[in-house]
Amino acid sequence: MTNRVILAYSGGLDTTVAIPYLKDMTDGEVVAVSIDVGQGGEDMESVRQRALDAGAVEAVVVDAKDEFAEEYCLPTIKANGLYMKQYPLVSALSRPLIVKHMTEAAKEFGGTHVAHGCTGKGNDQVRFEVGFANTAPDLKIIAPARDFAWTRDKAIAFAEEKGLPIEQSKSSPFSIDQNLFGRAIETGYLEDLWNAPTKDVYSYTEDPTLNFNSPDEVIISFEDGKPTAIDGKPVSVLEAIEEMNRRAGAQGIGRLDMVEDRLVGIKSREIYEAPGAIAIMIAHAALEDVTVERELARYKRQVEGKWAELVYDGLWFSPLKRALDTFIEESQKGVSGDIRMVMHAGNCNVNGRRSNTSLYDFNLATYDEGDTFDQTLARGFVELHGLSSKMAAKRDFNL
Amino acid sequence: MTNRVILAYSGGLDTTVAIPYLKDMTDGEVVAVSIDVGQGGEDMESVRQRALDAGAVEAVVVDAKDEFAEEYCLPTIKANGLYMKQYPLVSALSRPLIVKHMTEAAKEFGGTHVAHGCTGKGNDQVRFEVGFANTAPDLKIIAPARDFAWTRDKAIAFAEEKGLPIEQSKSSPFSIDQNLFGRAIETGYLEDLWNAPTKDVYSYTEDPTLNFNSPDEVIISFEDGKPTAIDGKPVSVLEAIEEMNRRAGAQGIGRLDMVEDRLVGIKSREIYEAPGAIAIMIAHAALEDVTVERELARYKRQVEGKWAELVYDGLWFSPLKRALDTFIEESQKGVSGDIRMVMHAGNCNVNGRRSNTSLYDFNLATYDEGDTFDQTLARGFVELHGLSSKMAAKRDFNL
Amino acid sequence: MTNRVILAYSGGLDTTVAIPYLKDMTDGEVVAVSIDVGQGGEDMESVRQRALDAGAVEAVVVDAKDEFAEEYCLPTIKANGLYMKQYPLVSALSRPLIVKHMTEAAKEFGGTHVAHGCTGKGNDQVRFEVGFANTAPDLKIIAPARDFAWTRDKAIAFAEEKGLPIEQSKSSPFSIDQNLFGRAIETGYLEDLWNAPTKDVYSYTEDPTLNFNSPDEVIISFEDGKPTAIDGKPVSVLEAIEEMNRRAGAQGIGRLDMVEDRLVGIKSREIYEAPGAIAIMIAHAALEDVTVERELARYKRQVEGKWAELVYDGLWFSPLKRALDTFIEESQKGVSGDIRMVMHAGNCNVNGRRSNTSLYDFNLATYDEGDTFDQTLARGFVELHGLSSKMAAKRDFNL
Amino acid sequence: MTNRVILAYSGGLDTTVAIPYLKDMTDGEVVAVSIDVGQGGEDMESVRQRALDAGAVEAVVVDAKDEFAEEYCLPTIKANGLYMKQYPLVSALSRPLIVKHMTEAAKEFGGTHVAHGCTGKGNDQVRFEVGFANTAPDLKIIAPARDFAWTRDKAIAFAEEKGLPIEQSKSSPFSIDQNLFGRAIETGYLEDLWNAPTKDVYSYTEDPTLNFNSPDEVIISFEDGKPTAIDGKPVSVLEAIEEMNRRAGAQGIGRLDMVEDRLVGIKSREIYEAPGAIAIMIAHAALEDVTVERELARYKRQVEGKWAELVYDGLWFSPLKRALDTFIEESQKGVSGDIRMVMHAGNCNVNGRRSNTSLYDFNLATYDEGDTFDQTLARGFVELHGLSSKMAAKRDFNL
């Protein structure tokens, strides 16, 4: 059987040179797969052509933006999925989607291997490889950067040796991964944790320390946890994210500077921008506060933390992740209504909510006329609520 | 035995009139206890005199600001104690402190009853009464507002009937509770969840939608989770909170507008301001990200949620709260170092951290020269990390 | 509108006398509802006739054994639902079922009130009343034993006064609640925790300290968590429980003597017998060990504890319980196969399991021929698995 | 510097032959370290002499039985530490103790390497190596069985080649690890999960399917969670375990047949015997039911599961394990008193408990004379306990 390597192809120098390299290495053929998850940059047809020029036997290009929004970003919104309470899982979300499409390409084109460009100290190698273990366990995995110390310098040397017509762009000081849900930046000088990010790090967001002309008030509507309209205009999830990336980004919302716990056991400094994700998730959480019952809400907060850790840790397809998904889906029934927020200078503040499925009851809550809460019930409640603790206190404090 | 009522005394009209009322009601005496937890307002000596004038047999005034900061606010900082991930427990923290001092007063002055002014639909009745159940289970509790529908109008009528020399201030539309850790505001028109707060609601914070002249950069230093210096100047916890209230408040930081789940089962709309609490807790959490080991950090996030719920629910003295305290205290060993933040227009953004007890290892994290991470280890890790999920996928997806 | 009380009617003296009592009290009519959940005793038609004789305007009898087994016991089996790790929730399961049928009767017969016989210090009042709050929040609830101190003695006096033809059985020293999933016994002398239960307490189980002739080997088969066959013979869930009640009971399996934490805040001593429930749940859990992936299994153990607490606490219909149900249901996919157990003298020991959906892989597990586990992967795994802890140890232990 | 290998030395053939093998391999010296954790077998002095005869430059023998009982078994008792709710962590407990003593030997004798005999598919390699990473991160680790495929056959061939005077015992079909807390057995035919264990597998316990003459009633006393007396006779923890191993073992208590989730991702079949551990832990848990407050008890059950997983996973020295230890230690205050159990034919049934620190209150619990529970409190409690769920039901069920 001919070796056929399904390569996650970005169009950049490293993966372009990887095409002849993988052909040599496996004595086989390479199928380049490029997925549009909203990363921007050049058009996908150019990317496809470059792969073929570099020797790929097939080059597949997939516009997966809608799928990414509906199947990966939306569950994250419903889960309030923030790793370490902060990071909306941007890169961790795109990897399982890419895995899925590479697996499909492997079936279509008779792939025997899959190849990715990740190093051995990051999270993405795990997300790719555990992903393949869960979708195509028989495919062999090639990770040149990790297993063969394949670096940019080696790629250039290899290209020159082979006489490949590559264009050497100026080496960027930034290592960037971006998609429609956000943007991740690592760069050398930030490895000193005391250094602040410089302005050129950012691209999706304005500088929140500038003076802004006026706040931007927005109303986001949800149905069962899904964003369905912005300022009354119906939107798809993709449109909601794109629109909020634009508007929240313009107000400097969604920047993160954090030290995070990688799955491989080390801590690393990361800069993120995720204006749309953060703005939508703030609105979603505020709507949950109005529409989700207290005990469910309390438990869901624990589930959310675990869900985010699993996704971060590359376990998107795992049985536990799937079981938590059913819990979260059930919790979203009734998370419907409108959230009004004021966005300004890096802030995104909720100041109004309305919902037909609200659990807020004016007549129970009000201290004014119309009060229906029977206060005489409270005495018994308080007494029994505290009884077990009271018994313990009598013993422990000798009362 | 003479009835002696230990009254939580604020100095306001309601509790002043409550003094003769409670004397009548119990055919006994009243001891007024007033605790300074940084709520501001008139000086405590005037408060004390007013209680005596109104007929209290004793009037006790306690400056508990330092105790409140060290024994109640600091554990909250260490716990990242935010109810529903947002609210730093402002009122929930002062109640157990007040209970403790009222219990001490009861011992000193031979109290037989304790009295508080809470209604039957809020959380504070629970915090008071479960508190007393845990510190002085034999004292009888009187809650006139709840159990005898004692209202402001009744208080005024009673005062007039008794010829008490009260001064009727203009009735405020706001119901406010404040202390050095923050400020809580409820008011009638906000009971419509779609209404936005008006500017006059706020007192601790500037309006973040104004234009601010310049960002305020601050460095907060911690030792084992405790804030110990600001911009290099040593501070007590009380000083840290006061200083950050001032500086973060001036930048519009720490406003909250939320719908929260009360212990009595209803949802209610609350406005909070807690500039110092929020700013210090952001810094503290960022330092934990650098100094707390991953698995401990992941578990602590769940503990934090539970801790905040217990404190919110009035269980400050409960056995579970005390056991979680030991966990949290242990977790804070090594949470030492400096966090640099930029405060501006409602934002409080960490952009630098340094620590002698950091778990960040440049040589493991860097992609540049000096890298000591052995990438060949990753392959085995990834494979076994994903093995159990892979086995399940083979079965569940028929692979 | 005529008052109509829907009464949970057992057929015993107390609830029989309650019929005229409730008519008097409400100046209305009484509809008696009796549910067969496998509690045994007299036939339901006699029960029905007695209610009518005592003055009920309608008397409804429902054979709900199958429904109870499928809709209440089966979820408990899937959840390994043991309160305090021990008690299979026997009484807590029947209450929501009774509530459901009483609610239906209220709809059919125009009920305005519901009545139950529970006291104010047990759990069942909560299960009934929270149940009604969740199925028929507008019905008024009457709890004579709790709210009007309606006791057996008062019932007898009332019957004599009214000249009701009651038959005074000898007062039993035991308070018993039983159904097909088990039997709960409370009795005065066991309120001294040092007293051991006497033999006459038990009815579903043989004395396990006797000598038994021979062990009973049984094979229970499951499909997706549901028991479907015993020793190869297909069974309904009801049949599975009945058959295992008989066989496990004959071997003295399923007795519990525990001190339990009631919802109202007190600890109480309880004796339970649940031979079928315990035997089936042991088999079910053993099959999960073979068929549920590790991380899902670890998390499910926490969910199980919460699920059992919610059901014990009367929150069967609550949003959190319903969301946990979806998690548990998802977890049961693939919990299919056979478990072989030896039952003898109070023991129920699993000694064999086979499953087509097993996640056990002989070739990975074996140390003999056929081993396919690649041991070289372990080194990398071990190193990275321990890396974050190692970094912390270096700091904390000055290594 | 001379290479010096600190070898975990059992005295058996494999580790005896490993001594010259490791000398060859490292061109250095070997220090044999043998720890008595109650595994029985030959006396430690013979073991020591054999190591020296085989060429060890030093041979250290440590009687660590008391230390093992106090520092490793006791925390497990307090934690009710059962992996997968069943397995009392027998082998997982001895590994960190051995690591600790090997680390001390390395310091004393200038060790540069440590060596253990574990394979690459079990848990013990992880426990050893993560242990060393946490106590002596600079030592190099040699695992011949895993990294050099060092097998029994190779050991024998090597011994013959080197002319070592070894005694070839008959190869046992069982792979056994045992200590005073229990015994673990793996063997080829049990790798078929449908096969039942044969009688010769067991050594610590009698066959529970035999007929036993008479039940053995025992009273175990605890102070703050620690077993301190048996039938009134004061005991150390070591003595408690040894005594209960004898008595519970004689009644056939403590056998386990389970399929367990290994850390390396596979499921494996394991047989355990732990009569003393199981009997003491049953008593301990029953005493907790009487002495630990409800909410603390509920939370502790989750902590227990996590604690057991961490210990099983080799993370004894990890920061999270240490923080959970403080929680558990705090929870044990007041876990004092006597538990009476009847042991018979594999059963260990609690039937009496008494404690001066009990939270059981007869006067609150009793339905007889002396009842002090105020039942009128219940109505308010029930109503507010169920209120949030009621609001949700109204919405979700259209009530």
Automatic annotation (TrEMBL), chains A, B, C, D:
InterPro entries: Arginosuc_syn_C (IPR048268), Arginosuc_syn_N (IPR048267), Arginosuc_synth (IPR001518), Arginosuc_synth_CS (IPR018223), Arginosuc_synth_type_1_subfam (IPR023434), AS_cat/multimer_dom_body (IPR024074), Rossmann-like_a/b/a_fold (IPR014729). The keyword ATP-binding applies. NCBIfam families: argG, PRK00509.1. GO terms for cellular component: cytoplasm. ATP binds at residues 8-16, 117. It is found in: Cytoplasm. It catalyses: L-citrulline + L-aspartate + ATP = 2-(N(omega)-L-arginino)succinate + AMP + diphosphate + H(+). Pfam families: Arginosuc_syn_C, Arginosuc_synth. Pathway: Amino-acid biosynthesis; L-arginine biosynthesis; L-arginine from L-ornithine and carbamoyl phosphate: step 2/3. One of its GO terms (biological process) is L-arginine biosynthetic process. L-aspartate binds at residues 119, 123-124. Belongs to the argininosuccinate synthase family. Type 1 subfamily. Its EC number is 6.3.4.5. The gene is argG. It comes from the Bacteria. GO terms for molecular function: argininosuccinate synthase activity; ATP binding. This is Argininosuccinate synthase. Residues 174-391 form the Arginosuccinate synthase C-terminal domain.
